[in-house]
Write a structure and sequence with these properties.
The complex is a heterotrimer of chains A (322), B (288) and C (446).
Chain A lengths: L6 H20 L2 H27 L7 H18 L3 H23 L5 H20 L9 E2 L10 H29 L1 H11 L1 H6 L4 H27 L1 E2 L1 H4 L2 H14 L5 H19 L7 H15 L3 H9 L3 H4 L2
Antiparallel strand pairs in A: 1-2
Chain B lengths: L2 H32 L6 H18 L8 H20 L7 H23 L12 E4 L2 E4 H23 L1 H11 L1 H6 L4 H24 L8 H16 L4 H21 L5 H15 L11
Antiparallel strand pairs in B: 1-2
Chain C lengths: L1 H27 L4 E3 L3 H6 L14 E9 L6 H20 L3 E2 L5 E10 L4 H13 L5 E3 L4 H13 L4 E3 L15 E3 L9 H10 L5 E7 L2 H16 L3 E8 L7 H10 L3 E5 L2 H13 L6 E4 L18 E5 L9 H6 L9 H12 L5 H20 L4 H10 L1 E4 L2 E4 L16 E7 L5 E7 L12
Helix pairs in contact in C: 3-12, 4-5, 12-13
Classes of the chains: A mainly alpha (322), B mainly alpha (288), C alpha/beta (446).
């Protein structure tokens, strides 16, 4: 694997890991909470980018895998007292399996049809879970508070969840990097540019797309498992919230479509900006309006996103900013 | 099972279906002309709702007489929205236009929340009702059906009988060729977007006479519009009308037979099935 | 052209980066919308304090919570915060909360906007606890948000009083430091069943219909067995999806089952539409009681359709809780009279208080009483004081469960049932119709 010798690959991971340990070293819990949430967004944005940025398929309802992973893991932990790490992994596999089955069907659709079908899938799953009593139906599921005792109390569980999120974020970014720099990734991008031409070159687009879709479902599912483990409760509405999917798309767009660092930058900038607008007295009422206006300006004038723009402008940047 | 409930629900669903059809027509027209899925569709519906609320509650105008004003507001909003948010990126890939229209969604929703808050509002309109046993036919629904049908006929007259309408169809068919024929495609695209927005707002106005609503109601109706346009075939206005009627009937008839909370599950499963089996809609040509 | 675009791009990027940079230091510890305690009222209130105790300057006491300033819960949350703010005004006017040794605590509020979203709530409560060093916590509005907040508060061992959160399950998780002010969901509509049997003794069949969300489902789940235990036949027991716009087919189905009464409901928009369509379809039931929507003032937008609709409410302006009533019930009365609360509220915000406002004020009031009883701000002592509490306020009776399993759950507070009626001049007004002891008017049957 040539990528593993690539310095920027290791640099990126070290930087992320370095930033992620700061709250732990400082012992600052609220900074850790912020970092936890931002890392989650980084995972959602990066995995959306794996399917969208590399193959050009706009998955609007990618959050369905976040919710699925969350629900499966939560059910295993609550009903069978499975250990959190094992439950989260099974949640990830279950979501990937779902993505594999659905992907075989919906990835045949192109463009707008695919985007609409992902919305439909998310809504169908949400409506189904609301009616499915074994998963708590519309009331959702709860942990009894004593469940956290197995992890050394609720406080330690929060810490554990954070470590898990850091590891997952590193894995997501590594996967995103490896896919992009591999021959596989090259094949994906040829599908993105011209699916028919890529077939002439001997690429099997449907198989490659399904594999990519399956991978891109794995990470958000585990993120969902970690998030709801820490949350202590899960309900259909917050688990399958379409709006969060759209937010992930915005982050990808903001940072740079099809780049590895773009979704990371996008997630951080988006969340910071939102936090700033909402706590600022002048802007807080208008935060949605301002966020919308910013998004529009970026879509219209910086379509490559922040990272993409830097890469276009400065050739030197291209070597270490993927 | 109760035959009277079934008949009553069939009427209710049929009548509501016309309004749903009108609502989805705006979305499908825009897609047909410029291949853009308008994610700002929901807030446009909401503007229609609040426009009629403000005019009837503050100015005391009869809700139905606000129709001309709403048509003008709709056209203008749509044209402005096109030139501000879309014109520059009209040839970009779907993601760009999706996000551009979504940004408008955010702005309108944000602005309306500041003005109206998210509390539920409703119009107090009654046009009487006709009673046949258990079947009640409401005046407001009859009026909504009549307006929806008239607007649809007017739209077809416009598209097939006027010069502007013909140029819209020409641009929808082949933009390049239309430009070669001397059609100003920018203006035509703007106008089509305006008409799409206008249809959304008219449907919003009609829905406001029937149901309570909030600033956020539009976004739920937007998802329903997606289902309808796919059912009728993306880009096909007649299909949207029939799609609306089918969804109206599907919702109302299945409610009698299955627990009502399963209706949305069924609806979205049908939606995905149609996409997979007949992506051009149940009236469209079978895809290759 | 490309040059122009470049300039624009660079400008935008710079702007974006600058904004992000601005945000960096502030979002680590963003400036909360703090309401600083003004020292003036304390000074003017000085005569009330014994001269010997006066020299001690008041110590600040930080009360943290999140408010839904945007999103779906915005309206009710605003009312709740207004109530809480009014309590703070009253405390300031009285010169703070005084302990026996002369220490004075001056509460101040710190809050953030949670956007009505559970995922923000947990991060914000952690921030309130760790950065803003909140001494005590109040809950956000709505069961879902309060649930998420309670998890964080319990993890950190903070005392939290919840209002606007009626969910039962939340309070059955073995919480130690969370206390619920609202009557739990399981008792929301049981009173409606009693009222039905009193008002319509011939009623046999009842339809229970509810929104498929956590709160309404638990209300319905408790009402169904209760109705059965009272000998009623539940002919329909069905939930509808959140976001349902049209109820016409569902109403046809209900009518076909021929019930004498309909109880259930969900939130604002659905409840309003449901009532409107019941009226339009001239549904022949004598008794309709639905959740949440009726106590909201904009419910009267639907005009005549509102008449006769009964809604359970935690509190209404016409309630009859008073010092005399407390004496009769052999329990202490605490805080302002109901009239004083309604008057000062109406004067300050120029709109009538809703039960959310009363809940907000009561949050502060109960907390204040707990400090006075404990004579300390030590959390363990305050929990002990709250456990022992059994008193009446303008908001009603408050007593918390001390059972390990359901610790902190509200046990004594009861619902009142209001009804929209037409007064002599044909204007729509609300009246309390149940319990009969508290009624402000007789119930009107449809």
């Amino acid at each position: 694997m040539k990528t593993l010798k690539n310095i920027s690959f290791w640099l990126l991971l070290v930087v992320i890991a370095g930033v992620a340990v700061v709250p732990i070293v400082q012992g600052n819990v609220s900074m850790r909470e912020d970092a936890f949430f931002i890392l989650m967004l980084v995972i959602l944005a990066s995995s959306t980018n794996i399917i969208m940025g590399y193959t050009g398929y706009v998955s609007f309802g990618h959050i369905v895998y976040f919710g699925t992973g969350g629900y499966v893991a939560f059910y295993l932990m609550q009903t069978f007292q499975w250990h959190f790490v094992l439950a989260a992994l099974v949640g990830g596999v279950a979501a990937s399996l779902l993505a594999f089955l659905l992907g075989n069907a919906v990835l045949r659709l192109r463009g707008a049809y695919f985007a609409l079908s992902t919305i439909g899938i998310n809504e169908a799953v949400r409506a189904f879970v609301s009616n499915f009593e074994p998963l708590g139906g519309s009331i959702g599921m709860f942990f009894n508070f004593s469940m956290y005792d197995a992890y050394g109390g609720a406080k330690n569980a929060g810490q554990l969840a954070y470590y898990a999120m850091v590891v997952l974020a590193l894995m997501t970014i590594a996967a995103s990097f490896l896919i992009k720099k591999s021959k596989f990734g090259l094949g994906l991008m040829s599908i993105r540019e011209d699916q028919d031409a890529s077939m002439v070159l001997g690429i099997n687009p449907s198989r490659m797309k399904v594999i990519t879709y399956t991978i891109s479902a794995f990470f958000p599912a585990i993120a969902g498992a970690i998030f709801f483990f820490k949350n202590g409760l899960i309900e259909p509405g917050p688990a399958f919230e379409l709006h969060r999917s759209v937010e992930a798309l915005v982050m990808v767009m903001l940072g740079g479509f099809g780049t590895v660092t773009g979704p990371i930058v996008g997630a951080v900038v988006y969340e910071r900006l939102r936090g700033f607008l909402i706590t600022n007295e002048t802007f807080s009422n208008f935060h949605l309006v301002i966020a919308g206006a910013m998004l529009l300006l970026i879509v219209l004038f910086v379509p490559a996103g922040l990272v993409g723009w830097l890469r276009l402008r400065f050739a030197a940047v291209r070597r270490f900013l993927e | 099972m109760n035959i009277e409930a079934l008949i009553a629900s069939t009427f209710d669903g049929l009548m509501l279906g016309f309004v749903f059809g009108l609502m989805a027509m705006g979305l499908t027209l825009i897609f047909g002309v410029m291949k853009v899925i308008n994610l700002g569709h929901g807030p446009l519906i909401a503007i229609g709702m609040f426009a009629v609320l403000v005019m009837s509650q503050s100015l005391g105008i009869n809700p139905y007489l606000t129709l001309p004003v709403i048509i003008v507001i709709g056209l203008l909003t749509g044209i402005v929205m096109y030139f501000v948010a879309l014109h520059r990126v009209i040839n970009s890939p779907e993601l760009t236009t999706l996000l551009a229209t979504f940004s408008v969604n955010m702005m309108i929703t944000g602005l309306m929340t500041v003005i109206f808050s998210t509390s539920p509002r409703g119009l107090d309109v009654t046009l009487g009702s006709l009673q046949f046993g258990r079947v009640t036919i409401l005046g407001t629904r009859v009026a909504a059906v009549v307006i929806a049908v008239v607007v649809t006929i007017a739209l077809y007259f416009f598209l097939y009988r006027t010069r502007q309408g013909k140029s819209i169809r020409a641009v929808a068919n082949n933009r390049g060729a239309a430009e070669l024929m001397g059609i100003n495609s920018s203006w035509v695209l703007g106008l089509s977007f305006g008409i799409g927005a206008m249809l959304a707002m008219i449907s919003g106005m009609l829905l406001a006479t029937m149901f309570s609503f909030t600033v956020l109601t539009g976004n739920a109706l937007e998802t329903k519009s997606f289902v309808i346009v796919v059912l009728g075939g993306l880009g096909n206005p007649t299909g949207a009308l029939f799609g609306g009627i089918i969804i109206g009937l599907l919702e109302s008839i299945t409610t009698i037979f299955i627990p009502v909370s399963w209706v949305p599950v069924l609806e979205f499963v049908v939606f995905i099935m149609i996409l997979l089996v007949r992506p051009n809609g149940i009236f469209g040509a079978r895809s290759s | 052209m490309s040059r122009k675009i470049f300039t624009l791009c660079s400008l935008l990027t710079v702007l974006a980066i600058a904004l992000a940079a601005c945000a960096t230091p502030t979002t680590e510890a963003p400036k909360p919308t703090a309401v600083p305690p003004t020292s003036a009222p304390a000074a003017t209130a000085a005569p009330a304090v014994p001269a010997t105790a006066a020299p001690k300057p008041p110590k600040p006491l930080v009360l943290g919570f999140t408010a839904s300033q945007t999103g779906a819960q915005q309206v009710a949350s605003k009312k709740q915060i207004e109530g809480l703010q009014l309590w703070l005004d009253d405390v300031k006017k009285a010169g703070g909360i005084k302990l026996k040794d002369g220490t004075i605590y001056m509460p101040e509020m710190k809050f953030y906007d949670d956007e009505s979203k559970t995922d923000r709530v947990q991060a914000l409560y952690t921030k309130l606890i760790n950065d803003d060093k909140a001494d005590f916590l109040f809950s956000p509005y709505s069961s879902g948000l309060a649930k998420a907040a309670a998890v964080v508060s319990e993890q950190n061992g903070k005392v939290m009083i919840t209002a606007g959160a009626a969910d039962d399950a939340t309070m059955e998780q073995g919480f130690k430091n969370t206390f619920q002010l609202y009557t739990p969901a399981s008792r929301y509509l049981t009173g409606a069943v009693d009222a039905l049997q009193k008002f319509v003794p011939t009623a046999k069949k009842v339809a229970i219909v509810y929104e498929k969300d956590s709160f309404s489902t638990s209300v319905a789940a408790a009402a169904q067995p209760y109705a059965k235990s009272k000998g009623l036949e539940v002919v329909i027991y069905e939930g509808y999806d959140t976001g349902t716009t049209d109820f016409a087919p569902f109403i046809n189905k209900i009518v076909a089952a021929n019930p004498d009464a309909i109880i259930g409901g969900g939130h604002f928009a659905d409840g309003t539409t449901f009532s409107k369509q019941l009226f339009e379809k001239k549904v022949p039931v004598k008794f309709v009681s639905i959740l949440v929507a009726p106590p909201e003032p904009t419910f009267k937008d639907i005009g005549d359709a509102a008449v006769g609709i009964i809604g359970p409410s935690q509190w209404e302006p016409q309630v009859t809780y008073s010092a005399d009533a407390a004496k009769a019930a052999n329990m202490p009365y605490y805080g302002p009279s109901n009239k004083a609360f309604v008057d000062t509220y109406t004067a300050k915000y120029s709109s009538a208080p809703s039960y959310h406002s009363a809940g907000g004020y009561a949050q502060g009031l109960i907390f204040q009483k707990a400090i006075e009883d404990a004579d300390s701000i030590d959390p363990a002592k305050i929990v002990a004081a709250l456990d022992k509490m059994n008193l009446m306020t303008f908001y009603g009776v408050v007593k918390f469960s001390t059972d390990a399993k359901t610790h902190g759950k509200q046990e004594a507070h009861s619902m009142v049932y209001m009804q929209w009626q037409k007064d002599a001049s044909g204007k729509l007004v609300t009246q309390i119709v149940w319990p009969l002891a508290a009624k402000s008017a007789d119930a009107v049957l449809r």
